[in-house]
Amino acid sequence: MPRSDLNEWGKSGPAAPEAEEPSADPAAAQPAHDADFHDAEDPRFFEDPKRIAQTALVAALVIAGIYLLIPRLAGVDKGIERVDDGKPVWIALALVFGALMFFAYVALFRGVVGRSLRLRWRESYQITMAGLAASRLFSAGGAGGIVLTYWALRKAGMPRKESASRMVAFNVLLYAVYMLTLVINGILLRTGVFNGPAPAGLTIVPAAIAGGMIAIFLFIALIPGNLERRFSTASQHHFWGRWARRLATVPSTLAVGTREAMAFVREPGRGGLALLGAIGFWATQIAILWASFKAFDAHVPLAVVVQGFFVGMAANMLPTPGGVGAVDAGLIGTFVVFGVSGVGATVIPAVLLYRLIAFWLPMLPGVIAFVQLRRTVVGWSADSPARLAVAERTRLTETGTSESKV
C-alpha cells in the first residue's frame, strides 16, 4: 500500500480512536454517532484513477513475468502449457469449491460484523467481495481489504472503536484457524500420524512459529480494553502523554478484538456462523488446490496439500500486490521441497490453476461489488438515523449478553 494510504489509515483507523468530546458550538451539537457516520472518508486508493491504472499496470507486468517469461527462462514452459490439459471434471469441482469459498468468507463477515449491524446478505457480499478485490490489487497481506472494510463499517453506522475491534476479531478468528492448522497438521505429519514426506523445515518449524503467534495473541487478550483511558487523566495536557494515550489504543483495540474472537468460539449460538465461515474459507481453498492436483494426475497426500498450502501462502506477506508472484513461487517451491514429482508436469500447472480460480476469478465480481457498494452507501446515508439506532440497540444487546456470561 502506498505510504500516504498507511498514514491515512493511521489517522482514521484503529490506531487513533479517541473519546469524542461534546462541541461548545450549539450549531455543531449533533448526535455523536451520526457525525461518526459522515466522517468516514472513501479509501484514497479508489479516488485517484491514475493510481488505479498504475497498480493495474504493475500487476499485469508481474503476471506476465510469472506466466510467460520466468517459466521459459527456467525451462519449464511446458508446465504452463499443461494448464489447458487439466481434466474437466476436476476443474469443474475446483470451480464449485471456489464458489463455496466466497460463501464461507461472506458467512464469516456476517457472523462477526453483519448481524450486529443488521446487514443483509447482499450487503455483506458487497463488502467482502470488494474487500477481496482491494486486498489483491492494492497491498500486501490484505491491508487494502482491511481499509475498505473498515470504511464500509463506518459508513454502515458502526462507531470507530467498535469497527476497529470487530475488524480485529474478524482477522483473529480467520488466522487462528490458519495457525492452529499449521500446528496440528505439522506435528501429526512430522510424527507419522499423517501420511506423507515431512521435512522438519516445513512441519515442525512452521508449527513452532504458529504456536508462538498463538501465544502472543493469548497474551494480548490479557491487556485491559480501556488501557488508553488510564493515560487520559494524567496525560491529556502533555504532548508526550497524549502520544502515549494514542499509542495505547493499539494494544487496547487488539485486546478487545481478540477477546471478541474468543467469545465467538465460546458461544456457538452467537459465533457458530463466524466459526464455520473461518474454517470453510481455508478448507475450500485447500480443496481447490487438491482438485487442481487431481486435474493433472498428481497424487499428493492430503496432509501434504494442507501443509504445503499454508506454508506457501505465508509468502502473501511479501510487499507485492496481493502476493502476486510471491505466493505462486512460494507454493511451487514448497511442494518441490516436499518432493512432489513432476514440477513442470504437475506442480506448476496445479498451482497456476489454483491461483486462477481462488485469486483471479474473484477480481471481476469484486470490482462489480465495489461499484454496487458505493450505491449501497448512498442509501445508508439517506436512512442513517434509523440505521444507527438499530445498530446501537443490537450492540447493546450483544454487549449485555456477553457480559452476563462472563
Describe this structure in words.
- 73% of the residues lie in helices and 0% in strands.
- It is an all-alpha fold and 406 residues long.
- It has one domain (41-405).
- Helix 6 (121-138) packs antiparallel against helix 7 (143-155) and helix 7 (143-155) packs antiparallel against helix 8 (160-190).
- The radius of gyration is 23 Å and the shape is globular.
- The two termini are 39 Å apart.
- Mean pLDDT is 76; it is low at 1-38 and 401-406.
Give me a quick take on this structure.
The protein is mainly α and 406 residues long. 73% of the residues lie in helices and 0% in strands.
Strand content bin: under 5%
Number of self-contained structural domains: 1
Figure out the total of helices: 17
Low-confidence stretches: 1-38, 401-406
For the secondary structure, the number of strands is 0
Secondary-structure element string: HHHHHHHHHHHHHHHHH
What secondary-structure arrangement, pairings included, does this model have?
Blueprint: H1 3-12, H2 32-38, H3 49-74, H4 77-81, H5 88-114, H6 121-138, H7 143-155, H8 160-190, H9 204-220, H10 232-235, H11 239-266, H12 268-295, H13 302-313, H14 326-337, H15 343-360, H16 363-382, H17 384-405
Helix pairs in contact: 5-6, 5-8, 5-12, 5-15, 6-7, 6-16, 7-8, 8-9, 8-11, 8-12, 8-13, 11-12, 12-15, 13-14, 14-15
